[in-house]
Specification:
By secondary structure, the chain is of the alpha/beta class. It has 2 domains: 1-33, no CATH class; 40-190, 3-Layer(aba) Sandwich (Rossmann fold). Helices cover 31% and strands 26% of the residues. It has helices spanning 2-14, 19-32, 74-83, 99-109, 179-190, and strands at 38-43, 54-59, 89-92, 113-123, 135-136, 140-149, 155-164, 170-171. It has a 6-stranded mixed β-sheet with strand order 1-7-6-4-2-3, sandwiched between helices. A hairpin with a 5-residue loop joins strand 6 and strand 7. Helix 3 (74-83) crosses helix 5 (179-190). The N and C termini lie far apart (42 Å). 31% of the residues are buried. The model is unreliable at 33-38 and 126-135 (pLDDT under 50).
């Protein structure tokens, strides 16, 4: 009798949750356990900007700490790909540059905001052969973001995104992990929730 009551309670509670909520919950817990890719984004401010804002994206010429050496302008390239869906007026620098140079180019282009990024840390797990086409393991990276208003040079927002690959995920490089959190950052600037 007791097992029947428990079974009915379990089925009743299971009927209260839809499949997409269960999928999100499973993904969250598997990511937190280190089985799937995981990222943690920390924003200083929770400000929103207009969807018609013109954003100029640049990356500093800082070589990240750690064992991996990502392409020099990869954060700006990936951020551009994540922002273009949400902000129709986006431009990026062709190469890494200093903050003053990036600010000058953003102003010359007529941008409202400069999104200045850098790869602060990038580690690749060396326990597998790095020559392999795909490798599995715990790659990790930290990127830092500053959103600066070009007219006043006021720092609107800063963010730190820490990513790590899961044991069940296959990646070639740590920079493969930064696309989803950068797209989520673009969404958060518009006040949109995660998908």
């Amino acid at each position: 009798m007791r097992s029947l009551v428990l079974l009915l309670a379990f089925l009743a509670l299971g009927g209260c949750m839809n499949v997409s909520d269960m999928g999100e919950g499973v993904h969250y817990h598997m990511s937190d356990a280190g089985l799937l890719d995981h990222s943690d984004s920390r924003r200083v401010n929770n400000l929103r900007i207009q969807p018609d804002s013109f954003i100029y994206i640049a990356q500093g010429a800082f070589t990240p700490l750690g064992s991996a050496y990502p392409r020099p302008n990869v954060v700006a390239e990936v951020a551009f790909n994540g922002f273009i869906e949400y902000f129709p007026m986006v431009r990026r620098a062709r190469a890494p540059e200093g903050l003053d140079t990036a600010m000058g180019e953003a102003r010359a282009a007529g941008a409202h905001y400069l999104l200045y990024t850098r790869f602060a840390k990038a580690d690749a797990d060396d326990w597998l052969d790095q020559e392999a086409v795909d490798h599995q393991g715990a790659d990790s990276g930290v990127i830092q973001i500053m959103l600066i208003e070009t007219s006043t040079q006021y720092l609107i927002d800063t963010a730190r995104i820490k990513s790590r690959s899961g044991l069940l995920a296959f990646h070639n490089k740590p920079e493969d992990l930064i696309g989803p959190p950068l797209e989520q950052y673009a969404r958060s600037l518009l006040g949109l929730s995660s998908q």
